[in-house]
Each structure stands twice: as C-alpha cells, then as structure tokens.
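Quick start: load a record and inspect it. Here is Cytosolic copper metallochaperone:
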Amino acid sequence: MTQYKYDVTMSCGGCSGAVTKALTNLEGVEKFDVSLESQKVTVESATLSESDILAAIQKTGKTAKVAEQ
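Running the structure step on this input writes:
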C-alpha cells in the first residue's frame, strides 16, 4: 500500500466534509485522514495513483496539490 500526502485549502467543516465524502466514495482508497487544522490530506491506496486521488480532491472545488515530503 502506498501513502500519498496533499496540501488542500479548506476553510471550514463543510470544505473538509466535501473532501471526506469524495474520498469515501473513491473506490480503491483504503484509509485516509483529512485535517482541517493543518490543511493536509493523507490517503493510503494500493490501486490508485497519486494523480487519480488528486483529481478526486480537486473535483470538490478545493485547491489541492501534492505535498512536498
């Protein structure tokens, strides 16, 4: 399983909720953590690519990028 980290601009609970819903509905996500406080999202998946997950997060309308490790 691979862990991916993203910086996501979220200003409220609704924002983090939208990202949470998108990741919950994304087939192949094994585990994830959405932190409104740190503006970070961590996702674990064995089948999805970093870009597939990033696209799903961006579809929520949030500004997101791959976090620098």
